[in-house]
Amino acid sequence: MEPRVIEGDGVRLRPYRDTDVADLVAACNDPLIRRFLGGLPSPYTEADARRWITESAPAAAAGGGTAYAVTDPDSDRLLGAVGVDRLVPMRRQGEIGYWVAPWARGRGVATAATRALTGHAFATGLVRLELLTEEENAASQRVALAAGYRHEGVRRAAAAQRGGGRSDLIAWVRLADDPPGPTPRLLPDLPPGGLTDGVVALRPTGPDDVDLMYRLHTRPEVVANRVPPEPPPRWEVDRRCRVAASNWLVGTVADLVVVDVASGEAGGGLALRYDEPRTGQAMLGASMLPEWRGRGLLTRGVRLLVDWAFGTVGVARLWAGCRPENVAPQRVLEKAGFRREGIQRGRLPGPDGTRVDSVIYALLPGDLS
Ligand SMILES: CC(C)(COP(=O)(O)OP(=O)(O)OC[C@H]1O[C@@H](n2cnc3c(N)ncnc32)[C@H](O)[C@@H]1OP(=O)(O)O)[C@@H](O)C(=O)NCCC(=O)NCCS
């Protein structure tokens, strides 16, 4: 038997009531909620809200799941929704989902509701909860991490899109015996405003950077360093920009745009790929558009990223690889303190089935003192 009320930090989870109808209609017609919750009727009417309150939500509870209204404990106003469904009793597993109304976002409502219902679900017998997010839904991924869920993998083409087509979903999972508290992140957020030395600024790559990234990654000298050495199709660059925030949260790569502070224009890209967290090693990748080269901007950007990697992320060794004939990036790395370690023969796939060598550079924190 479900409890009538679950108290959370600044939120109360309770069954839906008739008084929630207007707020349900307003929230379920909100563009963000519609974008990330594909199954909602369109438009969402008062009749839909009443059906939810009187039939669907009670049915979820009757089926062993839960569907709670997330409310303000003082005013009782509806702030959002949280529930557990898709139960697999044999595995003592369920799936948690939520939304928060536009008037209640950005103040911890989803995190508090998810924590509270997760705790309740584990206390009443489940041992494994899944939380599935769209790749682009960074806010929801932050909620997952804050509520102690860990990144587990990608469910390919798991979501049906409203306009047709399918998209991947990222799976986050929390087990009943996982440690309490938020999931630690390998790559923390940048400070507000990004990293800057007053001349160059580094900010996270996002969906608006597709043109820049496409120009950059289709340049012949950048293509030569790609694996395989072929220009990427535009959809691939578009996807890389859309999932950049997610990759950062998951801890695989911090993708950054190099900005010239004086003009505010973006001139290139830098990436910190945390390729071996177990040994504290990360890889640096860098490229600038031709019109921004030769001004020392990339060297400044590399220095900023190096300071952040060693000082904030806790990386113990940075490395980078270049084709031997590609001398410009080698000069940038040397100016930033990297040391040449040697050549890895036939390291990367080259054109037409060949293999190409790579010059390896590395930097340790002690090299900078
Ligand atoms: C995702 C959603 C539920 C978050 O609700 P919320 O109450 O604002 O979430 P919280 O305040 O608890 O936490 C939000 C976290 O996301 C961050 N965030 C908020 N808006 C963001 C945005 N537009 N982009 C990236 N991050 C964002 C906050 O900074 C916070 O992160 P932090 O804890 O690392 O600082 C809400 O945006 C929503 O309803 N979205 C539409 C429906 C949806 O996506 N549901 C989940 C489906 S998987």
Biggest beta sheet summary? 8 strands, mixed
Query: What percent of residues adopt helix (DSSP H or I)?
Result: 25-40%
Span between N and C termini?
Answer: 64 Å
Superfamily at the CATH H level of the largest domain?
Gcn5-related N-acetyltransferase (GNAT)
Helix and strand string, N-terminal first? EEHHHEEEHEHEEEEHHHHEEEHEHEE
Q: Which CATH first-tier class of the largest domain would you pick?
A: Alpha Beta
- Count of helix runs: 11
How would the global form be characterised? elongated
Overall pLDDT: 94
Q: In the CATH hierarchy, what is the architecture of the largest domain at level 2?
A: 3-Layer(aba) Sandwich
Structure description:
With 369 residues, the protein is an alpha+beta fold. The chain folds into two domains: 6-175, 3-Layer(aba) Sandwich (Aminopeptidase), CATH 3.40.630; 195-368, 3-Layer(aba) Sandwich (Aminopeptidase). Helix content is 30%, strand content 32%. An eight-stranded mixed beta sheet has the order 1-2-3-4-5-6-8-7, with helices on both faces. It has an eight-stranded mixed beta sheet with strand order 9-10-11-12-13-14-16-15, with helices on both faces. Strand 12 and strand 13 (281-288) form a beta hairpin. The mean pLDDT is 94. Bound molecules: coenzyme A.
